[in-house]
Design a protein that fits this description.
Rossmann fold, binds nicotinamide-adenine-dinucleotide, 42% helix, globular, 7 helices
Length: 253
């Protein structure tokens, strides 16, 4: 049986660890040749990796060229690289804000700009942007992160409109709480890790937080022909967390 991404070439930013790595692995299992672009190589060296800083346009151009010279084209772009920090509004500097936007929002824009001509040359392609539930709901002190992710969702729609006539689809995934380094620090700063994980699980109708592979599977599907009529959409993958209304503890049975 043909695999869903057979003969496709995919590039995944921030592909060395966490969600990006799971996307790389799942896309490879689905038959794609996948290049992970990241500031650092995967710790175990097990993936095809190319150095990439999404804040640097020359680095992006080099990453695209390297992929083309090795694989002859690009069919799938996954904009996954991202950073997160929290700071009260009045302590946040313009430089903090600019850094967040440079990685999380300007990066995906530049990646799409540089990859699109090569997808057009192949007659089409797919872009998957990793946003966040924090693009439309958020925790305190997350102004820059939430704004950057809301921007990613908007960019994703705009790319769908502009690139649709060229056979290129663009969709965004909004992950909820996924177990990676990005948010592990939150859990680890509490002395009782097990209790934190238990309490977090209660926020999710499915009863647990997410794994990187949950996002990897959705990215494969969105990039594949099975999603051929889906573009400009935001798909939330959060175990139902943002659908569960909060209740005061005294009213919980
Ligand atoms: N983990 C979560 O709960 C969660 C939830 C919602 C959204 N997300 C989003 O998912 C994406 C991946 O997050 P993660 O949890 O796997 O994070 P992570 O910190 O584990 O991995 C991020 C990867 O991006 C790379 N990276 C950072 N800056 C880069 C740059 N300038 N150029 C190239 N690569 C760069 C890092 O080196 C790292 O390998 C991010 O966009 C994040 O905002 C994560």
């Amino acid at each position: 049986m043909t695999k869903p991404l057979e003969d496709k070439v995919a590039i995944v930013t921030g592909g060395s660890q966490g969600i990006g790595r799971a996307i790389v692995e799942r896309m490879a299992e689905a038959g794609a040749r996948v290049v992970a672009g990241d500031l650092m190589p995967p710790a175990d060296g097990a993936l095809e990796w190319c150095t990439l800083d999404v804040t640097d346009e020359a680095s992006i151009a080099n990453f695209i060229e390297e992929t083309l010279s090795k694989h002859g084209g690009i069919d799938v772009l996954v904009n996954n690289a991202g950073i997160m920090f929290e700071k009260p509004l009045e302590e946040q500097t313009a430089d903090d804000w600019d850094r967040m936007m440079a990685v999380n929002l300007r990066g995906p824009f530049l990646m799409a700009k540089h990859a699109a001509p090569h997808m057009k040359a192949r007659g089409g392609g797919a872009i998957v942007n990793v946003g966040s539930i924090e693009g439309y709901a958020c925790n305190p002190n997350h102004t820059a992160y939430a704004a950057s992710k809301g921007g990613v969702h908007g960019l994703s729609v705009a790319l769908a409109v502009d690139l649709g006539p060229h056979g290129i689809r663009s969709n965004a995934i909004a992950p909820g709480w996924i177990d990676t380094d990005l948010n592990r620090a939150y859990v680890d700063r509490h002395p009782n890790r097990e209790l934190v994980v238990e309490e977090l699980a209660k926020l999710h109708p499915v009863g647990h937080i997410g794994n990187p592979a949950d996002i990897g599977d959705a990215a494969v599907w969105l990039a594949s022909d099975a999603a051929r009529f889906i573009t400009g959409q935001l798909i939330t993958l959060d175990g139902g967390r943002t659908k569960q209304l909060s209740l005061p503890d005294i009213l919980r049975s």
